[in-house]
Amino acid sequence: MSDHDVIILGSGPAGLTAAIYTARADLAPLVLEGEPSSTSDQPGGQLMLTTEVENFPGFVEGVMGPELMANFRAQAARFGAEYVTVKATRVELGRSPIEIWTGDPDAAEPDYRTKALIVATGARSLMLGVPGEDRLLGHGVSTCATCDGFFFRGQPIAVVGGGDSALEEAIFLSKFASSVLIVHRRKELRASKIMQDRALANPKISFLWNSVVEELLGEERLRAMRVRDVVTGAVSDVPLDGCFVAIGHAPNTALFNGKLDLDDAGYIVTHAGTRTSADGVFACGDVQDHDYRQAITAAGSGCMAALDVEHYLEAARHGGHVPA
Predict the structure, then answer these.
(1) Catalytic residue check, 243
(2) Does pTM top 0.90 for this prediction?
(3) Catalytic residue list contains 303
(4) Residue range 57-63: mean pLDDT, rounded
(5) What are the residues whose beta carbons fall under 8 Å from the beta carbon of 177, sequence distance 6 or more?
(6) Catalytic residue among 41, 111, 147, 286
């Protein structure tokens, strides 16, 4: 067992920015960065699954996602942040110190104890789970229109989904693409009427109803999607250059069910900055943000969490608490 002033769960833009700031404040943060084999909160976060990032400030020519995260990691290490490539399996909050298990969650003793905890476990995009998806992610397949739409200027693309997020992405992508095909498994959309009206009125947007994606085709880059009509059973290949999966996101908060206040979608509820419902626990990045979900906003909230922790620990040293 080891004791720390601050432990950070997660190593995406939010977690590593928090590590940079807490390390520079001489708090010697320990980052439990996740596990490479994990399907969620993997080391480096979702940017490890992207190719070129062109909208992060300071990189005029763009930067590869994994390279950006490696730079974040090295910068935090330069100031003294330490990393352990493990995933938390259990936490006990509401007591001081906070206790964290990374092995057997039923073990009698925790692996780590900390005065303050920053939760930056992120969120994951829900995927189609079809052949070719993993191979072509970042090579024509994307989960973020804001991040990647520019790369598809003048090209035919598809958006899979039927909710507000899917239609919002389709409308945004129509600024760049030659055409946008919305693929939906039903005959009616789930999106709000105003979003439906906007999409239906957009001359670049068309619809493929009652259809599901069976496979994404292409070797080095996406070239087509194989779709099946759920009514007739007919299968066809649709040529395209890009496919945006917009069927929702899920925050990585299973560890905190019943331990922190979560909203109806499972995201951690924060107040007065990045404070959560448990004393000494702070949350930042996509684990508590279901509106913006950008690397730059995650990094900004990581900075906020670090500053909140610094104030919290300083107040605790003087026998008080930072007002909620």
Answers:
(1) no
(2) no
(3) no
(4) 90
(5) 149, 152, 153, 154, 155, 156, 157, 204, 242
(6) 147
